[in-house]
Every structure is written in C-alpha cells, then in structure tokens.
Request: fold
Amino acid sequence: MGGHGYMGWWGNMGGPTQRGVVTYILSPFEQRAFAGVVHNAIFNTSRRIMSNVPYMGTAFALGYFIYTSANKKHAYLTSKAGHAAEGDH
Reply:
C-alpha cells in the first residue's frame, strides 16, 4: 500500500472539523413536485400559441393565396382556352 496510513472512512479524512456550514432539508411530506403542472401547462401553451397567431396566420394566408392562384393558373393553362391563348395546340 505504499506507506500511506489509513485515512478514515469517506468524509472522515482526519482533517479539522468543518464549521459554519448550514444545511436545509425539506421533508418529503412537504414537497409538491407537480403542484400546478396541468394548470400552468394549459395556460402557457395557450399563451404561446396566441402570441404566434399573427405570424402563423400571415404565413398560412400567403401560402393559401399562392396555392389557389397556382391551381387557377394550372387549370387555365390545361383548358382549351389556355391552349388557344398560348398557341400550344
């Protein structure tokens, strides 16, 4: 063992005793780990969704406008009038 003497069990290494350390412990019966979790989850989720509605609404409206106008253009170009106007057939 290389000449080292026994230093004591873990936490008792033979040094001076530590003073001035305050430890606070909360009883397991006083803890409420999930207090208000469901209430907070519902209201935080709704608040976050409502704060993003202007951004999501704008993006949805723009995407819907592009989609409908592209469908109208495609329907026109594949119709008889569209072919006649473009001179394809």
The chain is about 55% helix and 0% strand. The mean pLDDT is 84.
